[in-house]
Amino acid sequence: MHVTPAQSLSSSISRNLAGIGRALRALFSGPQSALGTALVAFFFILALFGGQLAPYPKANDQSHDARVSPTLDIGSLQLGAHPFGTDRLGRDVYSRVILGASSIFRIAGLGTLISVVLGSALGMTMGYRGGWLDELLGRVIDALLAIPALLLALVMVGIIRNLDFEINSWQAALADEVTLLVIAILYIPVVARVARSAALDIKTREFVAAAEIRGESSAYIVFREILPSAIPALVVEASLRFSYAIFLVASLGFLGFGSPPPSPDWGLMVNENRGGFYRLTPWALEFPALAIALLVIGVNLMSDGIRRAVQKGGA
Amino acid sequence: MTQLLDVRGLGVSYRMGRTWLRALREFTLQVDAGQIVGIVGESGSGKSTAALALMHYLSANGRIDGGDLRFLGEDMLAMDAADLRRLWARHIKLVPQNAGAALNPSIKVGRQVAEALKAAEGIADERADQQVIESFRDVNLVDPAQVAKRYPHELSGGMQQRVAIAMALMCQPDLLILDEPTTGLDVTTEAVILDLLRALISGRGAGVLYITHNLGVVAQLCQRVVVLYAGEIMEEAPVAQLFASPRHPYTLGLLSSLPKAGQRKARSRLQTIHGNPPDLRSVGAGCVYADRCPLTIEICRRQKPPLEEVEPGRLARCFRWADVEFPAARLAPIHEAAQAEAGVAGQMVMQTSQLARHFSVPRDLVDMLRGRSPKPIRAVDGVNLRLRHGQTLGLVGESGSGKTTLARIVIGLEARSGGKLELFGADIPGDLRSRQQDLLSQVQMVFQNPQNSLNPYRSVRQTLCRPLVKLRGLSAKAAEHQAMQLLEAVNLRADYADRYPDELSGGEKQRVAIARAFASQPSLVICDEPVSALDVSVQSAVLNLLADLQDEHGSACLFISHNLSVVGYLADVIAVMYLGQIVEVASVDALFRAPSHPYTEALLAAIPAPDPSQHSERILLSDDLPSAQDLPSGCRFHTRCPRNIGEICGRDEPPWRETGSGQGIRCHIPLDELAVLQAGAP
Amino acid sequence: MILFLRRRFVFFFFTYLLSSLMIFFLLRVLPGDPARVIAGGREATAEQVEQIRSELRLDAPLPQQYLSWLGDFARGDWGTSIAFRGADNRALISERSINSGRLALVALLLSVPLSLALGVIAGLSENKLPDVIISLLTLSVVSLPEFVTGLFLINIVALGWSGNPLAEALGWWFPASSAVPANASFGEMLPALWLPAFAATLVMLAYISRLTRAGVIEELKRDYVRTAALKGIAWRTVVLRHVLRNALLPTITVIAISISWLVSGLVVIEFVFGFPGLGSLLIAAIERRDLPLVQAIVMVTVSVILLANLLADWAYAALNPRIKLG
């Protein structure tokens, strides 16, 4: 058997996968993190198959009686016609809550993914190369982090949403995904900082010096020598980012800076039904709020579990 | 004589996940008042566990498995927390390993010591302060009143250790437990602390338990020795008898694997103990040493040998203790030719002239605007060295002397700030990236820390194949084949190829690292403290391996170590470094026969000989190493030099003097005068 | 020590300049014409856009715009509000800042002692029952989005409590809305502060207590704790005199960092409770496209955050003997 670079990469991946497998087992060994992971998995299934699971898969279906009380009977597990009731416009709250899962997962998930990939590459390269570029970028990141994420997100979303773009232009397409992009942009520096400090630590280890005296290129050293050892730290950071992203998406939606009105955004649904409407249809606020609460709790418990598992498992 | 401590059959376990790790088993020991008992063991032998267990102090995940622990007849295992606290406060004191970490970083040391005193005697603050200063004076701290007002981080390692000793001794304990009190200190500082301990202990009548991995320290300090291995006592004996005629194969192995004075690689190989210590999670029914023991017979694997009295006052845990004998001829001559060859002037491999590395301390903006810059740190400062083909140049010096920086400059990991570096007769650029592929393959390095020198996500096979492909341009298939040969060359079985670093022991990792370094068939191998992180029992095998591979490839070697006996075994020429400068260069034989520079003299005298019959006259160095940012004027060694001849030493840089035979020193005192001085030394 | 303070100050200054640069350019570099955004987007007429452009000097080169903007900001000339019909931005912001400051103060006074206590208790009982309860609490309930807890407080606590006979007897109830006049005095405002301050407390609680817990656990593992215990002093003394001294020192920095957390939280909380603070002003300014006002608010916020960090660094240095020469 001889080893090609692809094989060596795949074996380093499989080694990481083995680590992740161990971590997964560790995740389910604690009751808290098992509960969290189960909650997240539940909502993830809703996000994937919401269209099939919701009784009324059209988000703005106003064909029902308005202000129907929830028909859900927990004692007998009967759903009834409108388990979570209908809102003042006659929309089925149960369907809307199920449909809302997909946007929050897509925005928070993709935003986190983009920020983790780009932030890791940036941070690792900065940390390994050092020098003035690292110094400068480091300062820029510090300055960016001084502005609270929610404030930046509000300002950026608020401005971009008010711009006039030509219909079907690429700018307009981007503007539709503004929340996703803002999350990615906001978290790139945060992830970069974590990746940078991981790289700074790992590059002092002697196997990196051994690669240097072999004349390996910077890219080889960053991605082949340093990256594998940084993956545990990055996984922890990614799970943390994801939980903050969920939080942020929900908050933006609530403040009216998320998806525009007819969409079944949980935060938006909470906002639309507070104040005087709460007296009329409390369920239209309570169920989306409950969904947000459960998802946030789940993600938090899971990410704490991931952190523990990775720290305990070592490599 | 009062018996202070009486331990019988004590066992201690630690929880590791779901299993219990039995770190100490059937530990039996008696300590009388006025007695100094040594416990020696390698890492993982349970010696630190023993130190704490004997005080009945356990970490949160520890438990006592059974046995009996009595102090002055009182059952310590039955004591409640208050009784134990009283015992700790007044009767049993621990001097911990690594005093820097054992002191609270945010409390002034004087107050920390006073707290111990108050707990012991309940006296008023003012008198306590007075006594603290008194005790600091007893441990030879200069200006004790000032030291008391400092925080731990403001003291050097040696001073921290003195504070810890003062804290333990001032309460006049009946039993003093010292847990590796000099580990981590430089050999010169260690010598001073050991001397101090010897003076303080004698005449107090306290019982002392000295725990260490260093056989030399035991030989010089203790009266009785307990040898611990994998959590069990292997042998217990009066110190002279243990060193003269060990009764356990493990003790014998340890003693004979140390390089002896005068032992050279050209004349004899080091004795080794093969294999690795057992995994404590799976200790079988038999003797824990059976897998590594040359005397193992069938019963050893089946049944645990008892700790039995083999001679009056001597215990050993071995069925075959009667067969354990020191080999008669210790220095078996081999390689007569190689030695002759080393002396012959070969081709020049490395030559440095006035090589320097000055680190500039980072400036901040305000300094930049004012145009000021802080003094640079002169880590390497004008070094001239030569290394010829096939030769081994040993580089010794205390930590902070610049040895590692020098090595990193040569290999290109560190840029130089001045001077010239020639490798294989050609001028070499400082920057690693501008070095040619060919040059890279000619110079390789073995690093200090086996834990970090292999990428944890690469199998041994991948680690070894990469340099073969990258530096020697082999095809993947040929590299594969070569890698297996390399593995064989470093005495690892073929199935190690698919292991990952976390499945290897420290010694095995270092073998793989050595194989990687030799993969490109380098002409120059730089070894930076390659065995300092290894236990004695695996160290000798790695040293043998290095010597063999070097001999086979005809490579030159720059061997860096703080351990003079290791360097003495492996090197042909030794360079002694102090604060960035070379203070002496000499052939090994010349250096050990007549050390010339006062610093070399002190280094040699500081080594505790692993032989109780040999007492070297110590030359104690004052103070600790000055900072490389604020170097002493004139001769850099004059602040600590025992042979300081006055004003000139502090004023003028000493000249480099050479004798005809290639020995050179940097000192104001002429060589012949030094020789007279040293011959007449008391 | 002096060197350290100086270095931190230089760092503060740099970061501050860079953030101002970013705040300025963020709103300029984004695709689109700021004048048109302010004028009302698509519906604005060309004249309106032109007028705003000249009013705000938007036709000058960008670097020049930045310098004059920064100069104006430093001098205290923050312009007049577009959204609030010519109100002076500075007066507007300072009035709202005071209100937010009151809210933040109450929240800090509640949360810091509480979260330190919880963190220490959890740390000292690592993996035992109190720790499990506290960590479950901080991980779940306390880390909910502010608007969820805020709405819970309004709808369940305030409304539920108001009809309660006990509340009638005490004569004390929580107002369901904190929409008090912006210029109310602290005393008048106080009843309206409790609920939003409590919501803000929860925001800080999770963060500070978890880091405190980690600090305590880390310090407990250090060698000096063993040294102290083996002096024969009581465990309580070991914890109080040795462990907490080292474990609580870094929380100074933690609290400063969590100020940034608090600021984000306050934006949402003020919006939920209708409280007239800086956060609700910001949302109004963004909704009404008042870019100069938005910039000024963000600058003020960043100033507060950076200043808190600088002071924390200095305090940390003053209390930590290990930082002497820096």
What overall form of chain B do the CA principal axes indicate?
A: globular
Give the termini distance of chain A in whole angstroms.
Answer: 26 Å
Query: Averaged pLDDT of chain B, please?
Result: 87
Number of domains of chain B: 4
Major pleated sheet of chain A: none
Can you say what the CATH homologous superfamily of the largest domain in chain B is? P-loop containing nucleotide triphosphate hydrolases
Provide the low-confidence segments of chain A as ranges. 1-5
Give the helix proportion of chain B (percent range). Answer: 25-40%
CATH topology of the largest domain in chain B: Rossmann fold
Task: Please write the string of helix (H) and strand (E) elements of chain A.
Answer: HHHHHHHHHHHH
Parts with pLDDT < 50 across at least 5 consecutive residues of chain B: 328-343
- Count of structural domains of chain A: 1
Q: In the CATH scheme, what's the topology name of chain A?
A: MetI-like fold
**Strand tally of chain B, please?**
24
Mean pLDDT of chain A: 83
Reading off the top of the CATH hierarchy, the class of the largest domain in chain B is best stated as Alpha Beta
Major beta sheet of chain B, specifics?
Answer: 8 strands, mixed
Helix tally of chain B?
26
In terms of structural class, how would the helical and strand content of chain B be classed? Answer: alpha/beta
Q: Write down the Rg of chain A.
A: 23 Å
A few lines on this structure:
By secondary structure, chain A is an all-alpha fold. In chain A, 74% of the residues lie in helices and 0% in strands.
